[in-house]
Amino acid sequence: MEASSSSLWSSVNSGIVLSLLAVVWTMLWQGLQGLQLQHFLGRHSRRLSRRLAAALDPYLTVTVAEYDGGRMRRSDAYKEAQAYLQRATREAGGGVRHLKAEPDRDPDRLVLSMDDNEEVADEFRGATVWWLAYTAQPREDAGGASYFWGRAARAERRFYRLCFLERDRDLILGEYLPHVRREGRAVMVKNRQRKLFTNISGDSWDSDGSWSHVVFEHPKTFATLAMDPAKKKEVMDDLDAFRKGKEYYARVGKAWKRGYLLYGPPGTGKSTMIAAMANYLDYDVYDIELTSVRTNTDLRKLFIETTSKSIIVIEDIDCSLDLTGKRKKKKQQQAAEGDGAESSGKDGGDKKDGAEKDKEEEKEGKSASKVTLSGVLNFIDGLWSACGGERIIVFTTNHVEKLDPALIRRGRMDKHIEMSYCCFESFRFLARVYLGVDAHPLFDAVAALLREADMTPADVAENLTPKGPGEDADSCLAALVEALHKAKEKKALAKKAKEEAKNKATGKAKKEAAADEADDDDE
Fold it and tell me: Where is the composition biased (Basic and acidic residues) (predicted)?
């Protein structure tokens, strides 16, 4: 009996001890949680894992992505690495079996680069490194970025991965990578082909536009541009000051860009002026078709993707879009008035036609550009205009008076250049270029007619162009004199018709005013 009681008491004591131990452990564990012991242990475990990995794998890697800034623009480091690796890619010892080819400045050569999943070795001061080219699919959780950046966010992402031994860490990171960037830039300058870009709209409303390009090979230069010599020199001096003005723009706190407004009648050489500017500065040209840009956001994306040393062109900006909204309001007002006038004569069957018309207008509205004046102004000198540098923005127009003053004020369009009708100095230049003559008996007649007739340099050049084996300076200049006489007569007739229309309108206004006065007298 006593033995059983002793055994029971012993069991009770053991239970009490275990319960006390459990309570103490719970309290102790809660205290340790307050000290974030799990994070402490986790850090040490990860550190031990890295040390173990370093012992087993002595290689380090550096990844260079094609795009930075959330796919906003192509990385300079990626382009420089790609250019640097061209030499190693061409050499047989590099071991690259699959190559990609692009046209070179020399028409007989190709620029070669590694295809995906290819690896090439390089040496630098006794250290060996390996470069791997690969692509990766975009993350599935980037839904918002995909919507905002369109196809750019949905496209495959390309990378270069540099692999090297840990013992060469300081050499590679401190000296080799800067060496790669310097040499890559030198190769890019050597192989650079100036390009003419244009924006291509997406296949559907939710796809973004992008740039497409061809090699820029326009032959026009300032040496062959028909323009008043003094004005031509003024433009060239202005371009030189801009090209050399990096420190000046930084000192005064302005983005390194400049706006040019070229205005004048059709055929006065606005487009050829842009080509001459590009050839003079050795810049690329981005020709923006505003009607293909759907929103202000798409316009901003296009601007961000432009490079430095470029001319961004919007030709005939007064015709590209209704930037003021006046025409749209006027059209809506006219439509409303027309509907009001015709509503009394319509029956119930016309409602169907009206619904179909509304659907067509809605469809047209979805496909139309929604770029606004505010978007274009921000494109010119907003915050995003400071992304990059050494850019020239050129607007051309045949009717400068139609443009909003906010669009062409100084600070946006810094220099206004009038491209006028042909003057005598421009004619002499064209005669020397096209006919090889500096003087001729018909020059005086041409000079007198140019003061009275309006003829563009393009029309003068066409008349001075020999069109057959028997034509020479005499026949071409005679043809020009005849064309100038016709232009003079046409101008006189147009002036006379304008005056007659003005007099007719004035007479009509006077008659209406007299009739109103007579009505007032009768009352």
Answer: 344-367, 492-514
**The last residue of a domain, from among 418, 450, 483:** 418
What's the distance, Cα to Cα, between the start and end of the chain in Å? 140
**pLDDT over 90, % of the chain:** 33
Q: Are residues 301 and 325 in the same domain?
A: yes
pLDDT in tens, 132-148: 998 887 665 544 444 44
Contacts of 383 (CB under 8 A, 6+ apart): none
CA distance 312 to 257: 10
DSSP 379-410: HHHSGGGGSS--EEEEEEES-GGGS-HHHHST
Give the range of the structural domain holding residue 376, as residue numbers without chain letter.
195-337+367-418
* Paired residues of 284 in beta bridges: 310
pLDDT in tens, 95-154: 677 777 877 767 777 777 778 888 888 889 999 999 999 888 766 554 444 444 455 555
Question: Does 414 lie in the same domain as 428?
Answer: no
Q: Residue 35 domain-assigned?
A: no
Q: Identify the band that residue 207 occupies on the pLDDT scale cut at 50, 70 and 90.
A: very low
How many whole angstroms separate alpha carbon 456 and alpha carbon 491? 13
The candidate with the shortest Cα–Cα distance to 168, out of 206, 127, 131, 207, is 127
Distance CA 185, CA 203 (A): 35
Domains in the chain, number: 3
**Which residue shows structure tokens 């990995």?**
53
